[in-house]
Amino acid sequence: MTKATEQRHILIADDDPGIRGLLCEVFDEEGYLTEPAEHGGEVLAKMTKKHPYDLLIMDVRMPGQDGLTILEQLRKNGITTPVIMMTAHGTSSTAIRAIQIGAYDYVIKPFDVEEVTLVVKRLFDHQQLASKVRELEAKSFDPRDKMIGNSPAMQEIYKQIGRVAHTDATVLITGETGTGKEVLANLIHVNSARRNGPMVKVNCAALPESLLESELFGHEKGAFTGAVAQRKGRFELAHKGSIFLDEIGEMTLATQKKLLRILQEREFERVGGTTTVRVDVRVIAATNRDLEADVRAGTFREDLYYRLNVITLHLPALRQRIGDIPLLAEFFLDKYRYAPSSPPARISEEAMERLNNYDWPGNVRQLEHEIERAVILSRGNVITSEHMSLVPSSRSALQVDIAARLREKSTLEELLADVERLALQEALVQHDDDLKVAARSLGLSEAEFQKRQKKYS
Q1: Quick check: 1 pLDDT over 60?
Q2: Which of 312, 362, 411, 450 is deepest in the core (most CB within 10 A)?
Q3: How far apart, in Å, are the Cα atoms of 159 and each of 135, 155, 164, 188?
Q4: Would you state the pLDDT for residue 408?
């Protein structure tokens, strides 16, 4: 039992004494400090103490004020304690609403006690990771070492980093150009047990095949014209650390075959050599290509793909996490000050609205360049839309989303299914889970609504 675990204080609120007592007993045995509450008023009274709890586990249905109302009041009062909701209505909009107003997660009654303890452990693990990321950002002045964003998509990425960083598993990072795949690779390395070892990076698309092979595996003296001395390759240099293979989808089949051996055996020979070199290296690869399609086309080895695809992390496009744009913009405004002694430039509401409504085909990298340019043109003062090179989009938000999905090769059937599922959810939200009214609002019978609802679980 760790000291950190002993210090965690959990408030458990449920009007059912059986459930309340069971959870207190379980978490007491896990080494946490627990305290019970029977109703919403008691929760509010205890949560406003000078020393807040580390976690609130609360039932949605309680006498007096229900759990959702209590959660809203806590957030309005600036209390940011993580909340896990318990609900017997997991398929309804109640669970969706809980997440929307600030719950960390929810569990569905009747629940398995192990499921609840796992959710709590995941929460505290994520908090530790987030703290590490913040420490890393505070220590680093290089934006390439930082990953900015608090959107749900980025929170999920942080969770995934926490799950995989401490392992030696090969990681494949996918995502469009400019989304920050190299930054993610850095974060995996610095949060791993290999953090004190080297982090070696190779852009596989920047070198022709003959040079790439020598760069990766090194060469012996006289291996080819110009090889005047033995040279260690990037894999040798990365021994006891990590190697980042960017744009791995650009490798030729011949080089792919040699890379496969390293992933399988952790050994290779230098170009022109016969001595086997063994290395202890963690491989992190990245691509903006659809490697599954490349496998089908015969341009990427299937066996290599499965070796790389042990853990896959997908970075969302910027248009899929619009809520992070203000944070990113603030970061780049601070980075690109008009003069070293100047305060950061400011962005007008109109200009920020244009940033939020743009499609960002170049992702975070394009946003960074746009902010840098706007700071120069505004001379470090207030940035308006006149200082921007972005062409305002006349497309609706739905059109922008469809365009993004088409770039990800979604089929028409998949697009229509998503629209239908979201429409069913929204109808329930707008009509407070009244199935009959929700069905009527969509022009459906209650039976047809239930049939479609079942289709999407």
Answers
A1: no
A2: 362
A3: 16, 6, 9, 11
A4: 59
